[in-house]
């Protein structure tokens, strides 16, 4: 520990009182011995024996806070009367409370950690402009907690604000660049904090100072005997208290984990026993300073009955672990070293071993402890696995409760009041289950708000919600009866959801002080009936045997009430706005931690190796013994770096040990961990983390193996696997629930033809014979033969779902070809993504389609020609159309935020760019629109495409064609299909061949089949093309002229697809073509012929055969749908998979490692091979 600033400060006062107030026969006695020699046993025995023969003398047993419960239990078990009467088991804090209760020293309200956070939050905000360093970090998570710990450290080590200011003048401080500014900031905030609480509150960190100053007035301590046990070091404040006890009490006994020979030596800081040796020396010095006689040390050794007398290997470990040399000992049953596959396997191995010890070795759960150096890696897994094995356990640690619904309710409610009724805080509030609203109603509200972008005043204006999501732009229709019923339910749910929160908002508007806000929050909890709900949860948990959870709800409520009281008390009538109060109160919520007491007596203790105290253990499990974990890498923490702590020490300011000294102390912690067990010690480490990354063992593992390896007989390193491997299979048969999982893994090996241990057939028969396990084991067997695949649905089910005649769009059939199961979910079960009030790709596509349709209609109505448009006309028409459409898209989505309003400008530019490119097509070609958004099928301008399937049933294809163009040539009339795409799209022969892209060819088939509805006479295919709608950004190294930029933009927006292999048709699309066209995907030579290798131009025969092939594919798809194919069979083509963006991944759970799951791999094929297969026997050389 530090040099003891408090101790130094009070030395003169102590010496004065040592003469006047010392009791008769006051002495200090040390009980010395290494781990396991019986120091605690000696204390307990002496206390119980003394209490049995003398009930008038107060006996004080001073132990660490976390050990008080176990110590009281130990005394009760030993005392013949089963009571503790004149025995008091106290920690330093509890002793302070007891003394101040008698002497009246604590007149002011106590200020706990939460109260300090609240005050510091306020002070930091007030003085932030004065800070030199802290101004940059005050908003960082955890800063206030670090500041609180820093001030606590100052108080523990008697460092005042004035002392900090004084040391600023020291030359050593100025050698460190940031230290002077940091100390100045600390001195400021520390001084302001002390001034704030003076004559108002009692800082709990001042308790021990107050205790030391009042011990001489406490009558119950006069002539009392004190035993101090379980400490390996003390802070200066605690030394001060001990010095006062030496003046007041009849006798003080202190246990020190130290061998007798160490008391006569000068140990270096690096020595394992330096921490207790330093404590021993300081206490001796303290006794000298107060003139307290020292009794002869009571030295305990291993000569009699001690912790390890039944286990020679554990006794050898204690004696030899720290010794250098080659001495070794035969392996025994008391020590087990384990390497686990991962942390899960490690914990499961521990659980199985604990059960074995309890069943076969007569252990009770309370005889066992699990010790961890790094609790963070195990805090989620360990409780889950122990619960699976039905092992009662207690986590000996303070736990943050940020996740608790009550804290989330308060955080969210304050955010709503402060920042408005936005989606996130409103539904965080509603989903706490503390609002009197069913989960179904919350889901209904959430879906509705997401779909319609409801936020802000729409929650509170009192007007009923009647929004409905349009599937197309500008759609208007009457509500159905079902929709009206749902809206009524929705509005009632909205009223219940908003009532208490709206009342809070109204109260907060009238609030001006912390007291006002705290009262408003308390009223919110009252309005919601939170106390009743928490009591209900607590009762349910208790009935289910979850005692720790039951107590947690009650403790959280108490902590929140304490925070409200402390906030109202500490900040009182200080003026605050809602933002300032939220900052302060949220800081308080972040600081809430719970330290639960064990809910039962017989349970496994799970705790930190550094914190937990339980000397009476038969079995100890030390987990996570990896490199860098045990011994732990010492990290610099707190307000100061190590070099800064050393600089402060040079000025006379001693603080808590730095990282270097803590590293030295790790060896002592390891020693304590290895010597805690009297009968069985398990030491294990995981070989990999949760991601499969290798983890190295600690050097401790090698040291243990070295100690227990005499000759050729090695200490075995057992291996824990996630599943049984054939070795020690009986170890896995310990618990009916968990063993069933192991049985499943082993039986799968049997199904795969591998030999398994006959033991598992006996296990299987046992489950079959137990009535309550017959169904679970049956599911296990079924799972062995499970393949992730769906059987065909029956004809009757098909008819119920799809009807006798299949009405389908082309995109639907393409979906089937991509994956039959995805098609079934989308069109059979009609599963769809939850609609949200945001602009997605489908919305953009819909907007652009509608805009171009309106533009076409405008030209028709005003008898304007595309080719004759001026830029000014195009811009004016586009502006008018976009302004009309914007309010119609998703209930004015594009008007809802500044971002969307900015996006509206981009949409105008994009539409204008598409219009201008289409105008260029019209100027340079003779193709003109015959119609846009031409519907075919039911109620369409064109009849649907009707196909008869192999079984005689019918499929009618229906849809909407974006644009059909026509042009008359020398050889006939040609039709061209254009499909608008807001994203990049291309068309390949292979995709058409495999049925992945059928849309354009099917549309061509529809218009050619029903050409008389569009034109007079026969028509020929002119082309099928994708037109990309975007406003490209052109980047070039050098400057470009406007004409060059325009040319590059045209090339960027060149249409993709196929056109008729006829130079006349190409010229009809681009009269200026010479070489590569800027508009269409072909090139013509100077002789006006297609270049060799032009793949995007097809002959009339090729178009015909391709249409026939597409029709064949359509019929096949229709037949497979009507036959009930719902297989999970996604394709894979050139690295593309429909699963990549599939909405239904969580439904189908496609996994290549699961039997039955594999991709339909579409092989690459040459164009000539494809043409030959679909009936084109002679392919032109240039293809």
Automatic annotation (TrEMBL):
<feature type="binding site">
    <location>
        <position position="1139"/>
    </location>
    <ligand>
        <name>[4Fe-4S] cluster</name>
    </ligand>
</feature>
<keyword id="KW-0540">Nuclease</keyword>
<keyword id="KW-0227">DNA damage</keyword>
<protein>
    <recommendedName>
        <fullName>ATP-dependent helicase/deoxyribonuclease subunit B</fullName>
        <ecNumber>3.1.-.-</ecNumber>
    </recommendedName>
</protein>
<comment type="similarity">
    <text>Belongs to the helicase family. AddB/RexB type 1 subfamily.</text>
</comment>
<dbReference type="InterPro" id="IPR014140">
    <property type="entry name" value="DNA_helicase_suAddB"/>
</dbReference>
<dbReference type="InterPro" id="IPR049035">
    <property type="entry name" value="ADDB_N"/>
</dbReference>
<keyword id="KW-0479">Metal-binding</keyword>
<keyword id="KW-0004">4Fe-4S</keyword>
<keyword id="KW-0234">DNA repair</keyword>
<dbReference type="GO" id="GO:0004386">
    <property type="term" value="F:helicase activity"/>
</dbReference>
<dbReference type="GO" id="GO:0000724">
    <property type="term" value="P:double-strand break repair via homologous recombination"/>
</dbReference>
<keyword id="KW-0347">Helicase</keyword>
<dbReference type="InterPro" id="IPR014017">
    <property type="entry name" value="DNA_helicase_UvrD-like_C"/>
</dbReference>
<keyword id="KW-0547">Nucleotide-binding</keyword>
<dbReference type="Pfam" id="PF12705">
    <property type="entry name" value="PDDEXK_1"/>
</dbReference>
<keyword id="KW-0411">Iron-sulfur</keyword>
<dbReference type="Pfam" id="PF13361">
    <property type="entry name" value="UvrD_C"/>
</dbReference>
<keyword id="KW-0067">ATP-binding</keyword>
<dbReference type="InterPro" id="IPR038726">
    <property type="entry name" value="PDDEXK_AddAB-type"/>
</dbReference>
<comment type="subunit">
    <text>Heterodimer of AddA and AddB.</text>
</comment>
<keyword id="KW-0269">Exonuclease</keyword>
<feature type="binding site">
    <location>
        <position position="819"/>
    </location>
    <ligand>
        <name>[4Fe-4S] cluster</name>
    </ligand>
</feature>
<dbReference type="GO" id="GO:0051539">
    <property type="term" value="F:4 iron, 4 sulfur cluster binding"/>
</dbReference>
<dbReference type="InterPro" id="IPR027417">
    <property type="entry name" value="P-loop_NTPase"/>
</dbReference>
<dbReference type="Pfam" id="PF21445">
    <property type="entry name" value="ADDB_N"/>
</dbReference>
<keyword id="KW-0378">Hydrolase</keyword>
<keyword id="KW-0408">Iron</keyword>
<dbReference type="GO" id="GO:0046872">
    <property type="term" value="F:metal ion binding"/>
</dbReference>
<comment type="function">
    <text>The heterodimer acts as both an ATP-dependent DNA helicase and an ATP-dependent, dual-direction single-stranded exonuclease. Recognizes the chi site generating a DNA molecule suitable for the initiation of homologous recombination. The AddB subunit has 5' -&gt; 3' nuclease activity but not helicase activity.</text>
</comment>
<keyword id="KW-0238">DNA-binding</keyword>
<dbReference type="InterPro" id="IPR011604">
    <property type="entry name" value="PDDEXK-like_dom_sf"/>
</dbReference>
<feature type="binding site">
    <location>
        <position position="1142"/>
    </location>
    <ligand>
        <name>[4Fe-4S] cluster</name>
    </ligand>
</feature>
<feature type="domain" description="UvrD-like helicase C-terminal">
    <location>
        <begin position="304"/>
        <end position="614"/>
    </location>
</feature>
<feature type="binding site">
    <location>
        <position position="1148"/>
    </location>
    <ligand>
        <name>[4Fe-4S] cluster</name>
    </ligand>
</feature>
<dbReference type="GO" id="GO:0008409">
    <property type="term" value="F:5'-3' exonuclease activity"/>
</dbReference>
<dbReference type="GO" id="GO:0005524">
    <property type="term" value="F:ATP binding"/>
</dbReference>
<dbReference type="GO" id="GO:0003690">
    <property type="term" value="F:double-stranded DNA binding"/>
</dbReference>
């Amino acid at each position: 520990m530090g040099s003891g600033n408090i101790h130094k400060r009070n030395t003169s006062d102590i010496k004065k009182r040592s003469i006047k107030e010392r009791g008769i026969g006051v002495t200090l006695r040390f009980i010395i011995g290494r781990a396991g020699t019986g120091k605690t046993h000696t204390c307990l025995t002496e206390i119980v024996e003394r209490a049995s023969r003398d009930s008038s003398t107060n006996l004080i047993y001073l132990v660490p806070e976390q050990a008080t419960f176990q110590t009281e239990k130990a005394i009760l078990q030993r005392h013949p009367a089963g009571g503790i009467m004149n025995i008091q088991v106290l920690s330093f804090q509890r002793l302070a409370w007891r003394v101040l209760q008698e002497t009246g020293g604590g007149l002011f309200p106590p200020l706990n950690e939460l109260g300090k956070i609240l005050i510091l939050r306020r002070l930091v905000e007030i003085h932030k402009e004065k800070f030199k360093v802290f101004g940059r970090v005050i908003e960082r998570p955890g800063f206030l907690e670090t500041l609180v710990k820093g001030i606590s450290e100052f108080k523990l080590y008697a460092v005042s604000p004035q002392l900090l200011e004084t040391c600023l003048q020291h030359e050593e401080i100025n050698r460190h660049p940031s230290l002077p500014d940091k100390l100045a900031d600390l001195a400021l905030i520390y001084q302001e904090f002390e001034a704030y609480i003076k004559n108002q509150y009692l800082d709990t960190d001042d308790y021990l100072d107050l205790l030391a100053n009042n011990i001489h007035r406490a009558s119950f301590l006069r002539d009392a005997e004190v035993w101090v046990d379980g400490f390996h070091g003390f802070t200066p404040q605690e030394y001060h208290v001990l010095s006062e006890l030496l003046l007041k009490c009849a006798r003080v006994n202190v246990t020190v984990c130290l061998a007798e020979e160490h008391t006569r030596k000068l140990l270096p800081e690096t020595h394992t026993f330096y921490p207790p040796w330093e404590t021993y020396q300081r206490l001796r010095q303290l006794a000298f300073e107060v003139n307290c006689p020292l009794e002869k040390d009571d030295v305990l050794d291993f000569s009699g009955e001690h912790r390890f007398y039944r286990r020679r290997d554990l006794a050898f470990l204690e004696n030899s672990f720290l010794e250098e040399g080659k001495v070794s000992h035969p392996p025994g049953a008391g020590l087990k070293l384990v390497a686990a596959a991962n942390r899960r396997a490690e914990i499961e191995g521990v659980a199985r071993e604990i059960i074995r010890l309890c069943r076969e070795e007569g252990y009770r759960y309370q005889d066992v402890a699990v010790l961890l150096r790094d609790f963070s890696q195990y805090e989620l897994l360990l409780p889950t696995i122990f619960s699976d094995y039905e092992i009662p356990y207690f986590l000996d640690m303070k736990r943050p409760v940020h996740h608790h619904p009550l804290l989330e309710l308060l955080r969210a409610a304050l955010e709503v009041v402060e920042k408005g009724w936005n989606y996130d805080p409103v539904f965080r509030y509603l989903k706490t289950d503390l609002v009197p609203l069913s989960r179904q109603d919350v889901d209904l509200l959430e879906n509705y708000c997401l779909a319609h972008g409801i936020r802000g005043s729409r929650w509170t204006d009192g007007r009923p919600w009647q929004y409905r999501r349009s599937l197309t732009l500008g759609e208007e229709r009457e509500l159905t009866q079902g929709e009206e019923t749902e809206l009524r339910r929705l509005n009632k749910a909205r009223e219940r959801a908003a009532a208490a929160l709206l009342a809070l908002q109204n109260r907060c508007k009238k609030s001006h002080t912390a007291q006002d806000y705290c009262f408003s929050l308390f009223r919110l909890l009252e309005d919601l009936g939170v106390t009743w709900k928490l009591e209900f949860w607590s009762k349910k948990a208790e009935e289910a045997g979850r005692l720790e959870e039951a107590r947690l709800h009650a403790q959280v409520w108490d902590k929140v009430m304490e925070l409200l009281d402390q906030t109202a008390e500490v900040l009182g009538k200080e003026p605050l706005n809602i933002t300032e109060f939220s900052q302060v109160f949220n800081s308080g919520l972040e600081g809430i931690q719970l330290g639960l007491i064990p809910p039962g007596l017989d349970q496994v203790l799970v705790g930190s190796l550094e914190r937990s105290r339980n000397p009476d253990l038969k079995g100890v499990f030390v987990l996570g013994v990896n490199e860098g974990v045990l011994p732990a890498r010492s990290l610099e923490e707190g307000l100061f770096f190590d070099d800064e702590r050393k600089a402060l020490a040079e000025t006379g300011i001693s603080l808590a040990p730095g990282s270097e000294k803590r590293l030295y102390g790790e060896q002592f912690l390891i020693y304590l961990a290895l010597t805690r067990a009297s009968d069985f010690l398990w030491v294990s480490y995981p070989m990999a983390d949760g991601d499969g990354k290798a983890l190295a063992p600690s050097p401790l593992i090698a040291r243990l193996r070295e100690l227990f390896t005499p000759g050729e007989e090695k200490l075995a390193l057992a291996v824990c696997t996630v599943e049984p491997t054939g070795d020690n299979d009986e170890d896995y048969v310990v618990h009916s629930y968990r063993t069933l999982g192991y049985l499943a893994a082993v039986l799968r090996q049997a199904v795969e033809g591998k030999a398994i241990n006959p033991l598992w057939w006996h296990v299987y028969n046992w489950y079959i014979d137990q009535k309550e396990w017959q169904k679970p084991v049956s599911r296990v067997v079924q799972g062995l033969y499970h393949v992730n695949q769906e059987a065909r649905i029956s004809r009757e089910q098909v008819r119920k779902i799809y009807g006798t005649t299949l009405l389908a769009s082309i995109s639907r059939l393409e979906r089937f070809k991509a994956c039959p199961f995805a098609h079934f979910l989308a069109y059979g079960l009609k599963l769809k993504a939850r609609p949200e009030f945001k602009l997605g790709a489908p919305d953009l596509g819909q907007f652009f389609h509608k805009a171009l349709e309106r533009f076409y209609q405008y030209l028709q109505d005003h008898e304007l020609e595309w080719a004759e448009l001026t830029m000014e006309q195009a811009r004016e028409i586009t502006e008018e159309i976009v302004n009309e459409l914007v309010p119609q898209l998703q209930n004015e989505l594009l008007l809802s935020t500044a971002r969307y309003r900015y996006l509206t400008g981009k949409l105008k530019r994009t539409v204008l760019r598409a219009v201008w490119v289409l105008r260029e097509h019209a100027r340079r070609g003779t193709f003109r629109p015959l119609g846009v958004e031409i519907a075919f099928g039911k109620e369409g301008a064109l009849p649907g495409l009707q196909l008869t399937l192999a079984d005689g049933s019918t499929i009618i294809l229906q849809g909407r064609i974006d644009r059909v163009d026509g042009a008359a040539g020398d050889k006939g009339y040609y039709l061209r299909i254009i499909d608008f795409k807001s994203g990049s799209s291309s068309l390949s022969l292979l995709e058409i061949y495999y049925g992945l892209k059928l849309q354009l060819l099917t549309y061509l088939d529809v218009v050619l089949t029903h050409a008389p509805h569009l034109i007079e006479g026969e028509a020929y295919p002119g082309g099928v093309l994708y037109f990309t709608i975007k406003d490209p950004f052109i980047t070039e190294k050098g400057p470009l002229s406007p004409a060059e930029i325009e040319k590059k933009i045209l090339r960027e927006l060149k249409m993709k697809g196929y056109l008729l292999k006829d130079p006349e048709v190409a010229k009809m699309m681009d009269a200026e073509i010479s070489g590569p066209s800027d508009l269409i995907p072909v090139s013509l030579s100077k002789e006006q012929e297609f270049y060799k290798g032009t793949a995007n131009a097809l002959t009339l025969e090729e178009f015909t055969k391709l249409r026939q092939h597409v029709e064949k594919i359509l019929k096949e798809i229709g037949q497979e749908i009507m036959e009930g194919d719902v297989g999970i069979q996604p394709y894979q083509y050139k690295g593309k998979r429909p699963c990549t963006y599939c909405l239904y991944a969580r439904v189908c759970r496609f996994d290549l490692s699961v039997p039955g799951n594999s991709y339909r791999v579409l092989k690459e094929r040459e164009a000539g091979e494809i043409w030959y297969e679909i009936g084109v026997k002679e392919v032109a050389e240039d293809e």
